[in-house]
Hints:
- The chain is 19% helix and 27% strand.
- It has 244 residues and is an alpha+beta fold.
- The strands form two sheets. Strands 1, 2, 3, 4, 5, 6, 7 and 8 form an eight-stranded mixed sheet that branches.
- The longest helix is centred in the C-terminal third of the chain and has 14 residues, at 206-219.
- The mean pLDDT is 91.
Amino acid sequence: xxxxxxxxxxxxxxxxxxxxxxxxxxxxxxxxxxxxxxxxxxxxxxxxxxxxxxxxxxxxxxxxxxxxxxxxxxxxxxxxxxxxxxxxxxxxxxxxxxxxxxxxxxxxxxxxxxxxxxxxxxxxxxxxxxxxxxxxxxxxxxxxxxxxxxxxxxxxxxxxxxxxxxxxxxxxxxxxxxxxxxxxxxxxxxxxxxxxxxxxxxxxxxxxxxxxxxxxxxxxxxxxxxxxxxxxxxxxxxxxxxxx
Length: 244
């Protein structure tokens, strides 16, 4: 018989993560176009998008740092991947582990955990799902993507499982993401504008940056940054050796 579907953990959530659990992602700057995208508003019923889920996996000491904003521990990080350049959609982009729902999946948490295991080798047994965010529509791939926020209770080794899917798997320190020197807004040649992060030799933009920015805005960890600093996307990608 199939096992019980994975459920949200509602107790023993680290205090420093309660902001992203108890508050909806927000856009106080007005530059985050990602959070407001819904399939109902953007596509007709005849062109219903595919469902997908991603794992927004935070790691770090469960004990808060009383000296840091929001109690953020010095070792706090988030798991990101860089998609293979050969993929048909979103090639080369920095992303959360995740992908499309498959017939055997039992809800978005199950999809996110399965995809994370397949892409990075993360052991779902050591992961506590703590929040499921509303789905976000991604126009280029026509996916309706549900972000699943989780705490890495028992971290283990991760890495590239399939070179056909990813070229890199990395744990990016939250301290780098909230550093104002690493944050700005990018403008796509087709007109899209949104938050971006230049971290760990990568440019994080689009859906992934939008979700991160929305969570940071309600986390209690965020530092003031210059959201009026708008840069060309192609030039920003070239600066870190990436392409559009």
